[in-house]
Structure formats: C-alpha cells, structure tokens
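Memo to structure team: turn this sequence into structure tokens by end of day. - J.P.
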Amino acid sequence: MRVAMIGAGYVGLVSAACFSEFGHSVTCVDAAPERIAALRAGRVPLYEPGLEALVAANAAAGRLSFSGDIADAVPGADVVMLAVGTPSRRGDGHADLSYVREAARQVADALEGYTVVATKSTVPVGSGREIARIVRERQPEADVDIVSNPEFLREGSAIGDFMRPDRVIVGVDSDRAREVMRALYRPLFLIETPVLFTTLETAELIKYAANGFLATKIAFINEIADLCERLGADVQDVARGIGLDNRIGRYFLHAGPGFGGSCFPKDLAALTRIAEEAGAPSGIVETVLRSNAARKAAMVEKIVHAMDGTVAGRTVAVLGVTFKPNTDDVRESPSLTILPGLMERGAVVRAFDPAGMEEARAQLDGVVWCRDAYDAMEGADALVILTEWNEFRALDLERVKGLLRTPLIVDLRNVYEPREAAAAGFRYVSVGRAEAGAGAES
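Reply from structure team:
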C-alpha cells in the first residue's frame, strides 16, 4: 500500500518507519525544510532507541522517503495519516487544532481517487467530523473516508509498541475504510493483535481516557508514597502488593517526582475541557493535574529538607533531566520545576543527562552542564537522581562518596536499595521508603 504520513515529528516519523517496515511504501512529509534535509541525509532529528537504524534500512530499501510538499505525497496514496502537533492552546488548555486543520486543507486539495484520511494525532472528540467537513468544503466530490487511528507510543520504547502493540484502535464509518485499515495493519492481524473497530468519536475518546487513567495511577501511588513515609511503610512493596491484583495491574505504580512528557499533561488538560464543555466535568482528572503540579513542587522541598533545610550557597548534583529515560524529551519534565526551584533558593545545580541536555539548555538557565555523571558530582553537597537512566543504576558508590562533599543521595526514582546505600556510607533519602544511613530520622 501507499501511505502519506503528514508530519515527521515523533509520532509521524516512528509510524512512517514502522509502516515501511511492514512493507508499505511510505512518504513522510514535514513543513520544516531542515528536518526533511536531515532525514534525507540519514540523520534522525530526535532520540528514540532503534529509530535511526529502522529509518536508514527502509530508506535504503526504497520503502521510506521524505518530502516537504504534501502535494508530492498525497496523490495516489491509499492512506493519508495526519500526525501533526496538537499542543495545548495557550490560556484554556484545549488542544490547538490549527496544524490539523491546515494539514486537512492541504490534503484535501491534493486528493486523487479513493483515499482514507486517518488521524494519528491526539485530537478532541469531534475532530474527525471537522476534518471531514474541511475536506468536503475544499473538494465536494472527493472520494474519501475519515478514520481515527490514535497512537499509543511510549517514548523510549515506541518501535516495540508499534510493532507489537497491546491493541490497535480504529474509528471508522464505512466498510470500505475498514478493509483498507485491515490491509494496512495486516502484519498485526497475523500475530493476533487485538484490533478494535469503533466509531470516530469513541476512538478519539479512548486515547484521552487511556492517558487519563494511567496518569491517575501515577498520582495515586505518589500520594500513597507520602503516606508510606509518614507510617513507616514501603511504597514499593505496597505497589507490588496491589499490582498483583489483575484488576489493578503492576504498571504505572512507580512512585516518583510526578509525570511529564508530551502527552499526559496536555491530554489531561484537554480532557478536562472536553468534559466541561460536554456538561460532564471530570473531577478526578482535574484533581490528578493539580496533584501532579503539587508533586513536582513538593520534591523541591524534599531535597531542601534532606539538606538540613537550606540549599543556599550549596551545590546539588542532578542526574537526569528528561521526563523519563531513553528519550531526549524534557517537555513538562519534573526537572523544569525542580532545578529552577533549587536555584531560586540559592543552590548551584550541576546536571548531566545522557540525551536531554541539548533540549534542556534552552529551558534551564543557570544550570552547570557536565560531561558525565561523575563530573556532575565533583564537590557537590548532595546527589539527586531525577531520571532513572540505566547508567545511573550501577554507579560506583565508593567513587561517588569520594566526589561528594557530603555523602547524601536523594533518590527520587528509588533506583537503589536503602540498605545498600547506607552500607556504602551514605545518608539515603528516597520516595515512600524509610530514610537510611547516618543522620537518618528515627
């Protein structure tokens, strides 16, 4: 099949590469000339494990190409996918559909023959109908079906999520479009991947509902972590204990400094606006957003408290600034609250991240960026682990102790075992677990 992917950002590029790996002929279109030039030269302008090799292999095989012009890719395409950005609209939290609308207009002008136009972008309920209206206004005689096909890609494991997904959701109105989408995802049918066909509106809401529920699990376990600290319980054992219940499940029950990234914050904000306008306000989702914002701010106070109530004139080494490991994405990352909060209180922040420092520099003024994890620790009064990159999971604790001015670790991801850290001579503060080591509170 021929596929035109409109948008070469995270979702668009990953989806284009994976569809081409399925054997389809895919043209990925983006309005940014520098992005297209980089991709044509074999450079992938974002960090995602395995993506560069996948793009290179399929480009070399002739199944994946790149263009800056929608009119080059749409004519003759069996499926056109809209994978453009839908950022939060400034002021009200709604998803900004300006890029989607403009892409729909350009696609409509270039349509030839029967085409399925599918939305990959996360869009509010009713957007598919609006896209259909735009297409009909531009080309009243167009032979087209509109489909909703939301993505469920996790940054850092997106290729595996696409190639071996838990499910595929397709919102569709016609049998003809259903068969086209079945052909598009044929490799997944062969491995018996659950594929759920629904209405357009249902598919659009599934994406928001899924992210809302997952974010709620994170906010819930973070509140339980606070309770654990007060009562002397261990949040990791609590999470295991409830996660063994199949009705709950073990995923997204890792206590930490709050969620971030490109999806959860903006999607939950949009969901609250959708619910409000529909006359069915979502108090749970609104509370999750407030709880998460408070969580990030509370982590500043946790670090300050661990450093005996003041960070003024002291140096804090921070490992990790991305919102999660295996990505260079710092959007809505807890680091964007925690690092400025420490510096506002007079701390010097020395930080290292394996992939996110270039993105973070533009948003975190005043941070001293370091060559590696150990460079960040040189002469610091405390070590803070903020993102659980694998390379931070097996630090040489003897070396760490020798570099730090004070043997204090504040582990906001519970990477280490308290007894292990205490045995190595550290005062160790984590999340939802008892403090360990010299100076630990009784």
